[in-house]
Amino acid sequence: MGLERRTDYFVGHFEAMASHCEVLIDTRDKNLAQEITHLAAAEVSRIEQKYSRYRDDNILHRINQGTAVQVDEETARLLNYAQQLYHLSEGKFDVTSGVLRRAWHFDGSDNIPSVARIDALLPLVGWEKIQRHHSQIQLTAGMEIDFGGIGKEYAADRAALAVSALIAGQSDAHARSTSALINLGGDLAVTGPRKNGNGWQVGVDSGAPVNSGAPINNSGAPLIPTQTADFSLKQGGVATSGDANRYLEKSGVRYGHVLDPRTGWPVKGAPAAVTVVAASCTDAGMLSTMALLHGPAAEDFLRKQEVPYWCQWHKDAMNRAATSD
Amino acid sequence: MQLKKKRQGPRNIRHQLAAATCGLLAGSSHASSLIASGDNWKIDSALLIYAEKDRVSLAEGVLSISKEIDDDEFINARIVTDVLTGSSPNGAVPSSTAQTFTNPSGNSTYTEAANSTPLNHTFKDLRNALNVEWDTPLSRSLRGTLGGNISREYDYLSTGISASLAQDINQRHTTLTVGLSVNKDTWDPVGGVPVGFAVMPTYPAKKALDGANADKTVKEILLGVTQIINRQTLMQINYSRGQGSGYLTDPYKILSVLENDGSGNLRSTNPYIYENRPDQRTYQSLYWKGVHQFPNENVLNLSYRYFWDDWGIQSHTVDLRYRFDFDGGHYLQPHLRYYQQGSADFYRQTLTDSEETTLSYASADYRLGEFVTQTIGLKYGFAFKNGAEINFRAEMITQKGKDRRADAVGLLQNQQLFPDNEAYLLQGGLSLDSDMLIKYIMRFFK
Amino acid sequence: MIKTLLFSTFISLVLSACSLEPVQPWDRDLLAQQKMQLVADPLEIYLDEHTYFSKEASSGGQGVGGGGCGCN
Q: How far apart are CA C43 and CA B45, in angstroms?
């Protein structure tokens, strides 16, 4: 964890959720910046530890064992949210689709799984198969819940809310007008406009060419305005979904890593990256993910939502022209 | 059920998504609506001033506190205090000469000038009431409520319990409700309970008594159906039935007794008698309510009630509220209410000497008469960003009574037997939660 | 006569509910708003009911119980 002083703001760094995370704090008070960074890092770590599928000591692991589990309020809310998204997306967004990664390994190779392999996993996918009653949940054996699709955005919003509360509780009026921007590897949430009334300057990676064969990493949206599309973020959040670096390619056909839970296969013709600005990072994340799930119709979908967006397509025209199921 | 047409192309999900996210992120300290969860209490308060022209004035304070004690399970306590002052018609009709009446206590008299409606001026009362309710889910689609209430004034005590069940069916589009309540009340009137139709004696004689206090029991049942019509519309229909038994008379109200000759003159001796109502009353009502939100986010609230009982009373009530929402959290809500009532069978504005012996029941209480009440009002409200709300309401209530032709005999034709009544109502309200309250108190004392 | 007319109107309103468009759980956003509740402001309704109970012969319709007072 580190803290850097910039001209009129601080930048706090920490690593979490397999990304480089930053907190930009609009203050000259080093102690306050330190406090805010610690709080944001703590909240993001808390959520990561609670919902990471790589741990065997959290509630997610207990749920994925298949026994009936009484969940806490936060988890209940996340499950309700997952359910609402399942219905809103007409089944395309499903937190039980994580088991499909047993078949798909997006390493840029041409190892496409067999139809039989996928079909064997499909019975384990499907939100409607979960049993829920009040705050109790039970999965059937072999099923898994994976909050990976909403975890980072949720953590960004939660961290922003925690920092907002800390700022609001400051005794000094000047300190109470502090603003912070949370950046979790490209998923952003802000607590409010900066002290001068302007928003935080955000740049969107909309002009850079997409490089096939690049190493697998999470490319974040740079905060220094380097690209043509940059804007001012006063409130809400920004999220990016894309399959730029995680894909398989066989016989000239590109298989992106965004899978349609109903078929077990990747959404054909999805854009390379979608960035959305919305009222919260979670909203933005959902809209960008849903845009990807619409494949070639991604921009039609985004236009309908009446939010600022940037949609980047692969140079590969063949995939662009592919129709979705 | 109609089949929903398959959607062509993507639809705008931004609002539903925002609503879903709101629910997800609501567990923070920046909830946009008040939630009585965890250790947080939701507090609603209101102060009301009601004043009739030349009659009764009332100041009433209400405090309602709610807390979520378990998953979707709530308790609520409501405390009410009201202070009543002023004067109220005693039931006698105006006369061309001044009239003297004995106070309910029997210890003094009061006089009403000629040609004006006799009012009992010593009308002062303080009332305190407590209502407690427990509301809990009983199963996935069934909800139960249990309540108790107690209300105390210096001459009246009311205690009661109520229970209701609400069952969701039809994929939560329809809710069936059943409710029951029992109230046991006791009158402890000043000067005791007068015998029905006993004469109001000339001071210092005391009125004939039927005990120091009298009981009354009221049982009610309600059956209701609530139906979601579409995304913007909701409706409810209720059938209610109530039964009152015991002492249903007003111990302070009298009737003027006239000579049999049709002159309209008061009987020369003991021209005032205490009223008498039956000791049973069964009443029913059919109530319909609709709530609809327009595309501009304004909300219409309309209700109609038809009421009838075995005392011969029938009434119609139409209530309309329309809410205009403005940017920044302000709203304005005009209100119109129209009420029309037919009189009770035994409602009389005066009795003749012979009617006094032939009739079993009679009352001149204008509230059992034939009249129309019209209300027009406006409410202003403002919602703070943290979910607290403040509101103000002002209303004008006009009551126009109908004189009973059969009673307006002789000289009484020069009098207004059922005068109009005008009242205004002012109310201020504040809603917040205990976290905010503590914060404001701490800040105040800093 | 009026009673029969009212009864049949109410029954038909209830029956017509069967032919209505279903509202999915994620479309219940408006119905969840406080201003869309059947009793949006409980205190206002309580105070109104109490005022009119003491001035008129009719009472209730929206709920049961709540207690009485000597004002009527």
A: 8
For residue B400 the two structure tokens come to: 């126009």
Instruction: Return the amino acid letter for C36.
Output: M
The answer to whether residues B287 and C39 touch, using CB atoms and an 8 Å cutoff, is no
Residues of chain A with CATH 1.10.3980.10: 59-146
Q: Give the CATH number for residue B163.
A: 2.40.160.40
Q: Which chain C residues touch B150 with a CB distance below 8 Å?
A: 67
Q: In 3D, which of A270, A275, A306 has the Cα closest to residue A288?
A: A275
Could you confirm whether domain A59-146 is CATH 3.40.50.300?
A: no
Query: Domain span at residue B343?
Result: 40-445
Residue A100, both tokens:
């499909």
Q: What is the C-alpha radius of gyration for chain A, rounded to an integer number of angstroms?
A: 20
Cα–Cα distances in angstroms (integers) from residue B101 to residues B118, B213, B255, B407, in the given order = 9, 22, 12, 21
Q: Search chain B and give the residue with CA nearest C32.
A: B19
Residues A103-137: pLDDT tens digits?
888 877 778 888 888 888 888 999 999 988 878 89
How large is the greatest C-alpha to C-alpha distance in chain A, in angstroms?
A: 64
Measured distance CA(B136)–CA(B90) in Å, rounded: 45
Mean model confidence pLDDT for chain A: 81
* Alpha carbons C63 and C43: distance in angstroms, whole number: 14
CB B60 within 8 A of CB B90: no
What token pair was written down for B276? 């008498």
The pTM score is 0.62
Q: What band does B177 get if pLDDT is binned at 50, 70 and 90? A: very high
Find, in chain C, the residue whose alpha carbon is nearest to that of B188.
Answer: C70
B315 at interface of C, judged by CB pairs closer than 8 A: yes
Q: What are the structural domain ranges in chain C?
A: 31-56
**pLDDT in the model for residue B255:** 94
Q: Decide if B17 touches A, using CB distance below 8 A.
A: yes
Q: Report the phi/psi class of residue A134: left, alpha or beta, with left for phi > 0 and alpha for psi in -120 to 50.
A: left
In a domain, B207, yes or no: yes
**Is A286 in Cβ contact with B18 (below 8 Å)?**
no
Q: What DSSP letter does each residue of B18-77 carry, written as one string?
A: HHHHHHHHTTSTT-SS----TTPEEEEEEEEEEEETTS-EEEEEEEEEEEEEETTEEEEE
Cross-chain Cβ contact B236/C41 below 8 Å: no
The residue count of chain C comes to 72
Q: Is the pLDDT of residue A56 over 90?
A: no
| Mean pLDDT for the stretch of residues B170-199 | 92
Other CB atoms within 10 Å distance of the CB of residue B53: 11
For the beta sheet containing A131-133, the strands, ordered from the edge strand earlier in sequence to the opposite edge, are A69-70, A136-138, A131-133
Q: What is the structure's pLDDT at B1? A: 40
Min CA distance, C51 vs chain B (Å)? 9
**Closest alpha carbon to A183 in A21, A18, A6:** A21
